[in-house]
Amino acid sequence: MFRWLAGRGARPSRVAETLTRISPLGWRRARTSLAFLDGLDDREDEALRARAAWLLASKSFSGAQGMVLDDDIMLSIAIQAALPILELDPVLYEGWTEIIVYPGGFLIPRTEVDDSGVVHEYIQEAAGEAWDGGPVILSWEDSCPGMPQAANVVIHEFAHKLDLYGGEADGIPVLDAHPQLRTRQWRGVLTSTFERFERMVTEVEDAIPRDVDPESEEADPWYGSLPLDPYAATDPAEFFAVSSEAFFVDPLPLAKAFPGWYGLLQAYYRQDPLRRLLGPVNVDRL
To answer: Which InterPro entries does the record associate with it (predicted)?
Structure first.
């Protein structure tokens, strides 16, 4: 109990108990509903199951606005959240205790200071939020199976948690366990790739006709030419989170556009979703 209150992972005995409660049928149903998990081999499948059990045992799940959480919902979220740490130490998800799930999008008060020093307060609708030292908040409508393949709000928010584990959200996760990766190298590739993507977004926005609202669905064909959701151009932290969700669920556009950045993500996560989803033969033909 005190481990949980401190935001530490559950004891191995509790994780083992949780693992036994995940039925083979429930696991298979949850796994097959998430198409981006296709291609996991037997070892990876078992490792993912163990990581999902760790999450279920280590975090409390709470429904908001009348949301009733059943085992299938919690298992689906745990599976998606477990994928980024499939080959990493789950300690990276420690330091906080709760996952809050809303039925749909929720409102977050925001405060921004412009270049003139004027403070602007507004309300923003969100599908997910990861608080530094606090909970992960998710919209089930945006997290449930069947969402567009190129997006994954669960992976996005848990990538923020990986980023925050080492301090401020800056797009640079803790690299101590990766002797082949250096912070200076990571920062250099992140910065150059982020700036290149910013230019790509600007070019797309400049190409949108004046009679088309760039915030409307009518502008989607222009933004669809980008290898990542344009939200990735917000700042380096969002670039890392958006890149991470694309890395796991729709890796081909990312790998083609930014092979160096994809290579760093591959080294950090110790996974290669492109090869897993397309197969070695098809990847070698790219």
So the answer is: MetalloPept_cat_dom_sf, MtfA_fam, MtfA_N
